[in-house]
Design a protein that fits this description.
By secondary structure, the protein is of the alpha+beta class. The longest helix has 21 residues.
């Protein structure tokens, strides 16, 4: 007899939750990854065949939320206050004196915890099910990131211990060092800029609009506060940590209860020497008075509790000599100066290079080759130059090159921009990225020409220009690694099909600085052909809506580059009829659309607004006349309210369109 699907599904969920807790919280896995995946697949199969059995807390639903346009601002139950800092022993002892005086002779103790270098977040539960996750924000109001938080495996979707009907957990989102290193290796292999440190990477990963990207970053969550109705629900902080652990949360095991300030200092000193052995970054130690009653007696200032303090470890610095400055060209053509150093050890790592960001930073530091300098590696994978310690005897000032060091093209710096750029689309330093962008779904939509294929084509010298994509043959493709005849034929057919794309997609594919999809559509609609755009001066270009001096200058610089002219000559651009700006009831009115509207897509709304003479912009400003807000409206709605822009719904929009 076949097993009851409902019972089997629930049994699988409980089993998977147990293994997730063993693996992601306790670091004590009992089964292999393959066996775990098999359990997930079996549960997915049952839920697919019996949709009525799918529950929000199912382990299969960790990654399933749709991408959002923005994040909604949400007020915290009680403020998530920051902590005062102590930078040395004297300041820490002064904090202890204030605690002692405030408690008037009562015996007290501290709980010392490692200060994880991540992002604070509150997660809320109702009836044992994860209901909401909110970033710290400004402490009073944060952003709701529930769908992204669900992807973090050390956050339980369902509580397996005894809990209140509603409670809140506060903790720190971190990116483990192994995940951070893996992410940067992948970015380096793709020619992308490296992330500076795990803290910023964790924050950025939690705030991306696509939950699947958050899931791929392998974030972790360490809980440290347990609240009910906005209040601490345990008699002591140490008891709250034990409660969190019993509910299935990951609690940092490296904490210590300290009866004296000397024990606290001993803990701090011990971890300063051991911090590099941890699987995550820390930048100090947090000390909290353990008793909740004593915390209440000590109270709070306007900004921080009087019963807690963060001891910050000094930044890891070293002195060395600047031997040279070289220039590297990034995937978007940006030229970045890099300091070549006399190798020096910084907290156990030999550092030979450091970022200088841009030429303005070099001028600010008054830095020259031959100077003695101080570098810092405070959790940063890319060390940075902090200051010049002494000018070198034969110091030599650095000047940014006027031509790209890779392809020799003239380097341009658009007015108002810090960066200098190589605008040659076919520059070897940016060719892979240019080809990926050109073939991508939102541009020329050449199915099958993805990252792996582009890497092979460029590395084997088959594609030396973006234009070479259109001349790829079956014989060239089938000779590549892991490429079958059927796939090769399909890609050739997809390339031919892509040649029929509208003009705006071709313009987008060129990678002109500041010209994205919307600006490309405006240019195509206004000028009708690539030749008309290429021959237009800056003043003429600015006749197109939303094209200002900065964008028009970038367009002119792009078309003046000889290598780009060669590329354009090889591409067979389509033309389209220039559309006159219609006169109608909405002439001169600017709209911004946010959220979703039942029965009316964003494209349909944009077309109807344009047909009545109105304009749809991508961002809210004081010049915006209406923000049309649908369901799940994002940050644009918040911006409209801040600026006092009129907000309307679908019905009001339809009334304007039919006026």
């Amino acid at each position: 007899m076949a097993a009851d699907p409902r019972k089997r599904a629930e049994s699988l969920r409980e089993e998977i939750r147990r293994h997730e807790h063993l693996y992601y919280v306790l670091d004590q896995p009992e089964i292999s990854d393959a066996d775990y995946d098999a359990l997930i697949r079996e549960l997915q199969k049952i839920e697919t065949q019996h949709p009525n059995l799918l529950t929000p807390d199912s382990p299969t639903q960790r990654v399933g939320g749709k991408a959002r346009e923005g994040f909604v601002k949400v007020a915290h139950s009680t403020p998530m206050l920051s902590l005062d800092n102590a930078l040395n022993e004297a300041e820490l002892r002064e904090f202890d004196r204030r605690v002692r005086d405030g408690l008037k002779g009562e015996k007290y103790r501290y709980v010392a915890e490692l200060k994880l270098d991540g992002l604070s977040m509150a997660v809320h539960y109702r009836d044992g099910i994860l209901s909401q996750a909110i970033t710290r924000g400004d402490g009073e109001v944060g952003e709701e990131v529930t769908e992204n938080a669900r992807t973090i495996r050390s956050i339980p979707l369902k509580i397996h211990g005894e809990s209140a009907a509603a409670f809140e957990v506060r903790g720190e989102v971190v990116m483990p060092s192994t995940a951070f290193d893996k992410l940067n290796r992948e970015r380096q292999a793709k020619g992308l800029s490296l992330y500076a440190n795990p803290r910023n990477s964790a924050a950025g990963s939690l705030r991306v609009l696509e939950p699947s990207i958050t899931a791929s970053r392998k974030l972790d969550y360490y809980a440290y506060f347990y609240l009910e109705n906005g209040n601490y629900a345990a008699p002591a902080h140490s008891e709250a940590l034990k409660k969190l652990k019993s509910l299935g949360f990951r609690v940092n095991r490296d904490y210590r209860e300290c009866d004296t300030i000397d024990e606290l200092l001993e803990f701090i000193r011990a971890w300063e020497t051991r911090r590099d052995s941890l699987p995550y970054e820390i930048d100090g130690v947090v000390a909290k008075v353990d008793s909740i009653d004593q915390q209440r007696k000590l109270g709070w200032t306007a900004k921080a509790p009087r019963w807690a303090i963060a001891f910050k470890y000094p930044a890891r610095q070293a002195e060395t000599v600047l031997k040279n400055i070289r220039v590297q060209v990034g995937r978007t053509g940006v030229l970045t100066p890099v300091a070549e150093l006399e190798p020096v050890a910084v907290s156990g790592v030999i550092v030979a290079n450091a970022t200088l960001h841009n030429e303005d930073e070099i001028a600010r530091l008054d830095l020259a080759i031959g100077d003695s300098i101080v570098i810092e590696r405070s959790g940063d994978v890319i060390p940075k130059v902090i200051r010049v310690k002494a000018h070198g005897k034969h110091r030599r000032h650095f000047v940014m090159p006027s031509h790209c060091p890779i392809c020799g093209s003239e380097v341009v710096r658009v007015e108002g921009e810090v960066a200098r750029r190589c605008v040659n689309t076919n520059c070897p330093a940016r060719l892979k990225e240019s080809a990926r962008h050109f073939a991508s779904r939102g541009v020329m939509n050449i199915d099958g020409v993805g990252d792996v294929l582009v890497d092979q084509l460029v590395e084997k010298g088959v594609v030396k220009s973006v234009a070479d994509i259109f001349t790829l043959t079956f014989e060239q493709l089938v000779s590549l690694d892991r490429m079958g005849e059927k796939s090769a034929k399909k890609i050739v057919a997809n390339i031919e099909k892509s040649k029929k794309q509208p003009l705006w997609r071709w313009i987008t594919g060129l990678g002109i600085p500041f010209v994205g999809e919307r600006t490309a559509q405006i240019l195509a609609r206004t000028f009708g052909s690539i030749d008309a755009i290429r021959n237009a001066d800056e003043q003429t270009l600015q006749r197109a809506e939303e094209v200002g001096p900065k964008v028009s200058q970038a367009i002119r610089k792009f078309f003046e580059e000889p290598h780009n002219q060669e590329l354009l000559a090889r591409l067979d651009f389509p033309t389209e009829e220039v559309q006159a700006v219609p006169e109608g009831a909405l002439t001169g009115k600017t709209f911004v659309l946010t959220g979703t509207m039942e029965g009316l897509t964003r494209d349909e709304a944009s077309e109807q607004i344009a047909a009545k003479g109105g304009k749809v912009a991508g961002s809210v400003s004081k010049k915006t006349d209406y923000v049309v807000a649908g369901e799940e409206a994002g940050s644009k709605l918040d911006k409209a309210r801040q600026l006092g822009v009129k907000v309307i719904g679908k019905d009001e929009l339809l009334a304007l369109l039919n006026a």
